[in-house]
Structure formats: C-alpha cells, structure tokens
Amino acid sequence: MNVTIAPSTLSGIIQSNASKSSMQRACAAALVAKGTCIIKNPGNSNDDKAAMDIIQKLGAKLEIENEKLKIESKGVQPLSNEINCGESGLSIRMFTPLVALSDKEITINGSGSLVTRPMDFFDEILPLLGVQIKSSGGKLPLVIQGPIQPATIEIDGSLSSQFLTGLLLAYAASNASDVAIKVINLKSKPYIDLTLDVMKQFGLKVPENKNYEEFYFSNSDFDYAQSSYTASSTTLRVYTVEGDWSGAAFLLVAGAVAGNIIVKGLDVFSTQADKAVLQALMDCGCKLSVQAEQIEIGKASLQPFHFNATECPDLFPPLVALAANCNGKSVIEGTSRLTHKESNRAITLQEEFAKLGIQIDLQDDLMIVHGGTDIKASTVHSRHDHRIAMACAVAALNATGEVVIEEAEAINKSYPDFYEHLKLLGANVSLPITN
User: Fold this and answer.
1) Residue 232 lies in a domain
2) Which of 165, 298, 348, 382 gives 20 to 30 Å between its CA and that of 354?
C-alpha cells in the first residue's frame, strides 16, 4: 500500500509499542522454562506473531486472556517437522539452537529478505555441538537434528549478537555444566544483557558473563527448586514486555523535528540498545525532558551530531531522519553493521533520502548526512524494510510538501500501529481505505 504524509506539527501524548526484542525472547524463554507463563503487554508485530507460531509448533500451548498471553510448555516437544520464521532475523538465529534441543529432524524456513541472509554460522558451529545440519549453501532452508550437546566453543560475534542469544538459551535449557561460550568481536552487547535478564526472570540458569568475552555455565549448585528444570505444570511466571525503544526512537525524533509530544511506557533503565537514541537527541539540542514515567520532547534549532551506532545499528534510520533536520553535517559510525538487514540499509538510506533532497555520503565505516537543506516532496519506497518506511515518514513531517511512501505496510514487521500513532499526535497521514 501507499501512504501519503504531509508536513505536520505534532502534539499530544502517546504510549510506546511493545518491544519485539523483549517479546520474542520471552516467547523463547517460556518455551524452554517448563510450566505456565503469563506475558503482559504482548506485542502484535509480524515478528512477534512468527515467534508465537514457532513455539506452538515446538510444543507450547498459547491462549490470549484479557490482553495477556498465557503460555504453557513442557519444553521443546515438536508437533511439526517444519517451522517458519517469517522475515524475523532474531527468530531464525534464536530458535535454531532451540530446535536442536530435539532429536527430531526439523526444517527451518523463512520468507522475504530472510532467505538471502547468511546462516553459515550454524553450518560451522552446530556440528561442534553434536547437531546435524544441512543448509542451502549457508542460506535457508536449514534442516536440523539434535539433540544439542553443550561444549566449550568459540564463536565470532561480529555479524550479530542474536546467534549468541540462541546458544545461551539452548545451553541453559540443556542444563549445561562446566562449559563456556567464548566470543570474539561481540557486537550489540546491550541485547545480550537483555537476553541474560530474560533468562533470569524465567528461572533459567544464567552463565557468568566474563566481560562479554566468555559466558561460563558453572557446575556449582543451582537452585533447581526455583528453576525451569524441575518446574511443574503449576509453576507460574509473569513477565511484562517492555516498551520498545527501537520503535519509540522514531516517535522521539518526530517530536524533535515536528512538535512537542510526550512518549510514555519506556523504561529509562532498560538494557535495550536503542535507548542510546537519547544521547543523540541531547547532542542535537532539541527540547528534552527524561522522567521516570514519560519523556517530553520538542522542536528546537537542531545542531549536527556525531554518534557511534555500532552497538545499536537499528538506530541508523531514525538518526538519519534526525540528521536531515540538523543544520550541518552529522556523522554516524558503524555502517558495517547494516549490510545484512532487511535491506542493505546504508545504501538504501542513501538512495531513498536522495529522493528527498538529502545528501548522504558513505565513507569507510561512516555515514555523513548533510542536513539543513530542505526535505523535498517526493515519492520514496520502503524497500520492504520497516525501519526505512518509518524513517521516511518521520522525515516527511518537515518536508516542503507531500511525501508518498510505497510498500508502506513494511512497518507491520515491528510496529503495525506506527502510522496510526503519528495520526494520534496530529500528523497529516493519508492511509488507503480498507473494507
């Protein structure tokens, strides 16, 4: 579908959407933490739905009660010989090691851009753990047969921390003892903090984190009375999905460039990597008040900023929209992290923002955004990438005329309510009429 956004002034209060990073990890933890779990504030994005479908196929029972998600699980007991991760990079990387907890041969597939993403990590690592694997030249589909046998291994964490997340959950579910996962070049460390926090909240055995270079599962006494390993069907855990800093980053930038708004539902003490957007917002000089219950943000004369997004690459799109509105050249580091996203985001941002009259230079690991020039009315394309669609929408709020976003439904991957939330804040958004 096409969405048209006209220049707008924003005001009002909005509740942040649920974090898919938190939601998907909670689904995985609920699967391997035997017993019953209630997940409050469950997400409804396509990635969240993929995770829920996966854990059902792996044996969990799901029920929605009063806007809460109830999950009952006896561990990984596959009901199907195939799972589909949709377009979710986290799901494929996190659930593949969990599929390997079973001795059943299972095919793991996906759709869209996920089928082109490299998965040769599993070809190299899983055989070291006693798991049989067949892939299509390092791409999907994967055919996995366990059971996984935890061992001390070394992995490369430079492509994504999500591979490590899956291994940590699988090791915990396998009752790993006196083994370690050693990691070199680990990126996106805050996401590993989130994984470890979720594991703790679900009663899983949490490894010792040795400076993000080694995660050691000891053979010391573990309180199995409180753990998932001896949990019965009456064990009840309650987990609340956090507000999403990744999605809220676009709302916060929208407030900084187009008005005065209040965003609620964000934990300022969260381990989510994209909370770092606050630093860029402070550096550019917008009106900003960070409080325990809400964040107030408003438009001001914006100055260029320098930001290192190596640990939080999903911030590139909203930061480009922010930089386009700053008076000068802003520099964002970490473009090497953008190659294997839903699109090659560095190139995509450069090309789509060029249509809006914004020059972006790519130089080594740097992105240089030339702000302060008019954002032009134009037609852009999401490239089937949810964050590109949202970045263009935010930039359009301060354009010289209407901006049309083609294939705008890409937002459903992570933030289905995004356009509606912009409208609630007063944005002039034209959506196609649905029957």
Assistant:
1) no
2) 298
C-alpha R_g of the chain: 22
Q: Which residues are catalytic, by number?
A: 314
Residue 320 shares a structural domain with residue 357: yes
Domain boundary (185, 220, 255) is at 220
The DSSP string of 83-106 is EE-TT-HHHHHHHHHHHTTSSS-E
| Residues present in the chain in total | 435
For residue 235, pLDDT over 70 is answered with: no
Cβ count within 10 A of residue 317: 30
C-alpha distances in angstroms, 280 versus 232, 321, 355? 47, 12, 24
End-to-end alpha carbon distance in the chain:
14
Q: Quick check: helix, strand or coil at residue 150?
A: coil
Q: Domain of 331: which CATH number?
A: 3.65.10.10
Whether 61 is covered by a domain: the verdict is: yes
**What residue numbers bound the domain in which 83 lies?**
20-220
226: in domain: no
Q: Comparing 395 with 434, which gets the higher pLDDT?
A: 395
Residue 260 pLDDT greater than 60, yes or no: yes
Predicted confidence (pLDDT) per residue in 176-219, tens digit = 999 999 999 998 899 999 999 999 999 999 999 999 999 999 98
Q: How far is CA 196 from CA 17, 29, 87, 112, 273, in A?
A: 22, 11, 24, 30, 14
The band of 434, judged by pLDDT with boundaries at 50, 70 and 90, is: low
Chain centre distance of CA 191? 9
Kindly report whether the global pTM for this prediction surpasses the value 0.85. yes
CB contact at 8 A, 257 and 299: yes
**pLDDT exceeds cutoff 50 at 281:** yes
Q: What is the pLDDT of residues 332-355, one digit of tens each?
A: 999 988 776 556 899 999 999 999
Q: What percent of the chain has pLDDT over 90?
A: 88
| Distance (Å) of CA 398 to CA 71, 331, 401 | 44, 21, 8
What is the identity of the amino acid at 91? S
Examine the domain organization and report whether 131 and 247 are in the same domain.
no
